[in-house]
């Protein structure tokens, strides 16, 4: 594919691998509910910064891998990621240039929507979350977004990725 270097592909794959490790890494009981949506944030970053190369197929495949890693209903993450990232792909020309506080608001809403879609499917199956703690990752995700996006942006520029 034109414009893809091995280093660039390696950065994308590495970012997803690290995100998946962070997503399934064991945490103390008190911290499990506050785990950010690492993989979802990585998907948002790449869809916004590289919309022509990172699309819905990638979101779907990454979602299926997350379903396997987390032991959730097969297709749950794939459905939520694909749906929300479709909406994100329509925002990408604007989202990149919003001030940080607006980006955080949009990331918060997108993460809430992703969690709500998963909750909706689980509710249909009779296994809905029973605590408000289910929604906390939307908050923790926006707290890490500025540093997380900066780290990925710097990596993207180091390997010669497109801006």
Describe this structure in words.
This protein has 163 residues and is mainly alpha-helical. The protein has a single domain, classed as Arp2/3 complex 21 kDa subunit ARPC3. It is built from seven helices and no strands. The mean pLDDT is 91.
Secondary-structure map:
Blueprint: H1 6-24, H2 29-32, H3 38-49, H4 56-70, H5 76-95, H6 100-124, H7 136-158
Helix pairs in contact: 1-3, 1-4, 3-5, 3-7, 4-5, 5-6, 6-7
CATH architecture: Orthogonal Bundle
Instruction: Give the number of domains.
Output: 1
| Fold-level CATH name | Arp2/3 complex 21 kDa subunit ARPC3
Q: Helix segment count?
A: 7
CA radius of gyration = 15 Å
Shape: globular
- The rounded distance between the terminal residues' Cα atoms is 17 Å
Overall pLDDT level: 91
Please provide the ordered H/E string of secondary-structure elements. HHHHHHH
Number of strands: 0
Helix/strand-derived class?
A: mainly alpha
Helix content: over 70%
Strand content: under 5%
Poorly predicted ranges: none
Main CATH class? Mainly Alpha
- Could you give a short account of the major beta sheet? none
Task: Explain briefly what this protein structure is.
72% of the residues lie in helices and 0% in strands. The chain has helices spanning 6-24, 29-32, 38-49, 56-70, 76-95, 100-124, 136-158.
Q: Key terms for this structure?
A:
single chain, 163 residues, mainly alpha, Arp2/3 complex 21 kDa subunit ARPC3, 0% strand, globular
């Amino acid at each position: 594919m034109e414009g893809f270097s091995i280093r660039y592909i390696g950065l994308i794959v590495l970012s997803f691998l690290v995100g998946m490790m962070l997503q399934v890494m064991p945490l103390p009981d008190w911290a499990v509910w506050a785990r950010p949506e690492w993989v979802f944030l990585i998907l948002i970053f790449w869809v916004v910064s590289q919309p022509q190369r990172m699309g819905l197929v990638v979101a779907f495949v990454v979602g299926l891998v997350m379903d396997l890693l987390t032991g959730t209903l097969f297709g749950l993450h794939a459905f939520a990621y694909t749906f929300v990232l479709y909406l994100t792909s329509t925002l990408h020309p604007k989202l990149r240039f919003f001030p940080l506080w607006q980006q955080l608001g949009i990331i918060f809403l997108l993460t809430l929507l992703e969690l709500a879609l998963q909750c909706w499917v689980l509710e249909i199956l009779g296994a809905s979350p029973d605590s408000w703690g289910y929604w906390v990752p939307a908050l923790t995700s926006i707290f890490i977004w500025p540093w997380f996006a900066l780290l990925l942006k710097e990596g993207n520029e180091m390997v010669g990725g497109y801006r």
